[in-house]
Amino acid sequence: MAEQGQGGMPPGHRAARLVLLGALLAAFAAGVVSPAADGFTRGAWEQAGQVVAYFLAPLRERATPVPPPTPSPTPTSPKPKPKPTKSRAG
Amino acid sequence: MRLLGRLLHFTLSVGLLFVVALPLANLAVLGGLAAGAAVVLGVAGVVLVGRASWVRVRTPDDVHGGTLAGRVAPAFVRRDRAWPQYFAAQVLLDARAVVQRVRLLTRGVWVAPYRWARAHGLKWWWPFYAPVLAAQAGVAVGVVAAVLGAGLVTGTVSAAAWLVGVPVVLLLRGLDAGWQAVFGARASCQHCHQLAAVPAYRCRGPHPPGDRLTGADLHRDLRPGRLGVLWRRCGCGALLPTTVLRAAFSRRLDACCPACTEALLPGAGVVTDVRMPVFGAASAGKTQLIMSALAGLEQAAKRVNVAVALPDEHSRQQHEVYARLMREGASPAKTEAAGPPVAVTLRLTKGPRVALVHLFDAAGENLVDREQNARLAYLDHARSLIYVLDPFSVRRVRDEFAAGAPEVFAAANPATYDPEDAYNATVQRLQEFGVPTGRRRLAFVVSKADLLEKMSAGPDDPAGVRTWLRENGLNNLVLTVERDFREVRYFLVSGRDAGPDGGFGPTNWILTREWSGLG
After folding, report:
1. Are A21 and B44 inside 8 Å of each other by CB?
2. What 3-state DSSP class applies to B415?
3. Greatest C-alpha distance within chain B
4. Helix-strand-coil percent breakdown of chain A, rounded to 5?
């Protein structure tokens, strides 16, 4: 096992190390930025939810079933037949 | 007075502690936390960018020496001299290097201020040490948190690499194995007659002469694995493909026999490998059968537009001798019992399909001798065998016709060994070596048909060979053969015939089963 820098290493190792470094930096950046990003992200999601809810609202209203008419407790008398009216046009 | 001074100092110190030091300590903790995280990130950056000379590197020599984890199959002896995949080994060494360096730095953060304060005799200024202590504690906590975080990230990336890598490795290995199973591809050695699924490969990269001598340039297990998934980096720096399928067409690799390290034929391990060992008693007509089979295969290949080539010098020389003997109608010299088995190889190419056809011949004395035939390794690896029976060695034929046709018997030069014993000697040897003959096929050849015809002693047609054998006292042999082998086909062959009635019949039957027939 040798102790050396990256000079003697194959390109595959160098690439893998850079990927790992990128992941570390990304995680670090995410850790620093996340408190600010959290509020922004949450706001964006809430706004998106409101927009979706706005467009869904008419559909939900139409889909709401109309309640059947409740029968009245007292029997109703039959309505008088309307008298035929004369047409003015004759 | 002195007491008064001490009281005053104590009062001032406590005042400073509460008024100055503790507010400073709060800031120092926060600063320490940030500094600790920055130290870890900085050290990791230095290591990963490759500027750290203290990092241990797992080199190809370490791998060759056996420091890489994982099991190596006995067939591959030990790990090849190649760079290990980063996430198979080096990532752990890098992580360990980061932790060790960070620990050293943290220790320095704790030790250095204390030594400095003691060296400068600052014990009267102890309230001002509180922010230092707070900073040290902050650094320690920051370092631990950052190391844990970095470890989590490294573990996640490594796990992702393994999660992708392992299925790809299995898939590629499965492709190799599937291809070999479907096309009957194997690597046959022309020199030691050993058979391998995975050939060894010699790297053509810039190796020093010492590597060539010690075999450090040899890759015995080029399959995808810890030394690389799609590619591997040889110790010399050359980039090599990982699967047998790709290695066969690589210009950077030469296929070698894993047992004797002699060069293999091009395409070994990828093209269909048809091995046809011919066995039987001495003077049964084995060599004559091979001669006529070669001539018959060449003629038939021309008819059906299959390209025929002799891929190695030994086969070319042997073929030249056999072709001359066939033209002259002469008999071949007796195969030397003291010499090695003779193998002639043909490369047949039919469009994209290629086959290497090996015909193996050995002296009959060696085949029937239990000690000698133990060395004939080529017998073990064939999916089909050819047994040659000399009809003139059958007792009933001899008793009936020897006196009446002495000139025919003289020309036949009959085998003296009992045909049943000759068969049993070889087949029992196969079974003792664990060869599942019940999964093999056998071409049962009755030779010297032309001479048999002169006496009108043979079967009327090739289809009647089995009945003829039973009628001539070889019922037991027929039963044994059909019990021992999965598939048996009987042939009546004249070794002087280069056409379909010669050795072409049984060899073409085997070719049809294992590759593609020639009509």
Report:
1. yes
2. coil
3. 149
4. 60, 0, 40
Q: How many CB contacts within 8 angstroms connect chain A with chain B?
A: 86
For residue A16, the chain B residue with the least C-alpha distance is B86
Instruction: Give the separation between CA B501 and CA B506, rounded to whole angstroms.
Output: 9
The model's confidence at residue A73, banded by pLDDT at 50, 70 and 90, is: low
Query: What are the pLDDT digits (tens) for B243-287?
Result: 999 999 999 999 999 999 999 999 999 999 999 999 999 889 999
Please write the tens of the pLDDT for every residue from B90-113. 999 999 999 999 999 999 999 998
Paired tokens of B235: 């110790």
Cβ-based interface (< 8 Å): residues of B facing A: 37, 41, 44-45, 47-59, 62, 67, 83, 85-87, 90-91, 94, 149-150, 153-154, 156-157, 161, 228, 231, 233, 237
CA B16 vs. chain centroid, Å, equals 77
Name A13's Cβ contacts closer than 8 Å, sequence gap at least 6.
A6, B83, B86, B90
| β B239-241/B231-233 pair status | antiparallel
Among A6, A23, A28, select the one facing B50 at the smallest CB separation.
Answer: A6
How far A4 CA lies from chain B's nearest CA (Å)?
5
User: B197: which DSSP letter?
Assistant: S
